Amino acid sequence: MKKLFAAFVFPVLLFSCSKNSDTPVIPPIVIPIPPTNNPITTLPAGWRIATTFMNNFPTGIQLYSFDSIFNGQKIKGFCLAYDSKISSFEFKPVLSAIAKTPSSFLNEEPGLTYGCINGGYFGSNQSFSLVKYNSIVSSPNIKTLTRPLNGINTSYYTTRAAFGVSNTGTPSLSWIYNVGVGNDLIYTYPSPSANELNVAPQPVPTETFPTGGAVWNTISAIGGSPVLIKNNTIQITDKEELIVINNTTSRPRSAIGYLSNGIVLIFAIEGDNPPNYPGINLTDLALLIKGFNCEAAMNLDGGGSTYMKVNGTQTVRPGDNGVERPVVSVVLIKKR
After folding, report:
1. What is the pLDDT of residue 26?
2. 3-class secondary structure for 164-200?
3. Do 257 and 291 lie in a common domain?
4. 7 lies in the same domain as 154
5. Does residue 121 sit within a domain?
């Protein structure tokens, strides 16, 4: 910088001090410094900042992309990251009475939305996963599952995964159950209820079972299944949550988690798009997310439901032959 100053500024001073010259003053040459896009978190190998999606994004929210080999397989994915400590960001799960595409949710939402991803599980226009916004529970995590036991249809009461934020934006993720007759009282547990197929079901979860339960202090939340990472350790509890979603085969996947510093991460992995992008299984999904040093993460609805838009632009190709699947819930990251 000193050499540039000497080369360009000194001659300018000579011209400006010459009282007898009619030569106009030559302004100093300014070399523009391009804006930097430093990631708000450390990026694992293969992840890059997706600047083309981030036009006019404020500080504290970014999109990352991955298009490389992971564990011997070609993977394409995106991760929307935002700092939950910044109060101008809002985490907003939305439920619809009828299934509609994530793009429809987005188009109908007022205000500025940075990102939109499909939410939890559903069937026949009914959500099977928790949807909670501004303290109002519009749908609980499914409270009773029917599974065969010794040839008899039997009720199981699983503590399934959910991700939520407190009224200060602090994220948390755990196994939960909507305790009691209604759905407003949600309990979180340090370990899942130890249900398992072909084994007698565990009791209905309560304030005291499983051990260590406590009221879940969240204002807005979305349910999913299974937990992938808990306490900074990969812990895939698909057996305890009685969830079978092509767990060991490559499929499109959606997931959400957070870092210990409060950065929330939302993932969409492309799949069902052979031969280049078959997708990813649950184990590799957990490993891919763990590369961010994720404190906790869970799986959202995936397969043909996986769809994410950022800044109004589609990221991954939908798994239903490139066509958006109607869903009943989405998660929006908005300007508050």
Report:
1. 54
2. EECCCCCEEEEEEEECCCCCCCEEEECCCCCCCCCCC
3. yes
4. no
5. yes
